[in-house]
Structures are given as C-alpha cells and as structure tokens.
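[Automated response] Your request has been received and processed.

Submitted sequence:
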Amino acid sequence: MAKVATIIKMLGLFKGVWPNREANESTAAIYHLILEDIDDDDLLKAGIACIESCKFWPSPSEIRERTETGSVMSGERALVLAMGNSKLRELPSTIQKALKNIGGKQMLMEGNFTHMRRNFLNAYAEIAKDYIKQSSRERAEKLLPKIREQSKLIEGSND
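Generated structure:
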C-alpha cells in the first residue's frame, strides 16, 4: 500500500522534471486515492519510468501502466511463463485462460509453434484487455466513496 509520503516524494520528482506544473495537497490526495493499492517501491520505480518515458506530467493511469502490480504482463512474458511453468494452477488466471482458449498447454508445446504462439498471444491480449477493464471498474467502485468524501473536504476548504 502506497503511503502519502511516497506519493509526495514521487510528485516532488515530477516537479523537478516539469517545474511549470503545480502539485498541491489536492493533487497528492487524488494520486494517493487512485494509486494507494500499489507497493511503495513499485510506485517509485513506476514514477522513475514515467520520468524516463513521458513527455508531460504523468497521470495516475500512466503511472499504473508502468508498475509490476498495476497491470497485466506483456503477452511475450506471459508466453515465456506459460512454457516454463510445469504447474498450470500456479500461473496467473489470465495465462491459464489463454492456454485453455488455444486447447491447453500441450497444444502450445507440441503444435506448430509459430501458429500456436500467435493464437496464444491473441487469446492473451483479449483476456488481458477484459481483465484490465474489470480491474479498473472494481477499483472505481471501491474508490467512489473515498473520492466523494475527498471532494466534500476540498469543497469545504474553498468556502
């Protein structure tokens, strides 16, 4: 779980790179609400990755995309895991579903590899896309009450 101090540290790094951008308490509070489920170290690594690759101040979604825990792995990485792991139930559910969609791990290992690789990557891409949508909706459902409360606090301080 990301601490507020970690969010502030990351925003401070961003401020050093994008000095014309303002980051206030409200910015930190919103970033914390959206990114609080990410480990501190992973969050800082993602922040550094954003500094290396973003042209503009990163949004929470851009930060999340660069975390190990905030998104699903690439199709190629999933394929390597699928081929290297002998215990199907130890694989992430997204990989298990992709293997099932192509007829099982046996098909990947014994069939025409180029063809099965393409089938696996296509199946995994669709499953990963659905997983990301579902995860985003679930996070939004959990965050909605917190965001409403935060909005009341911000509105109250403007009176």
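Summary generated for your ticket: Helices lie at 4-17, 25-35, 40-53, 60-65, 75-84, 93-101, 105-110, 113-157. The mean pLDDT is 84.
If you did not submit this request, please reply to this message.
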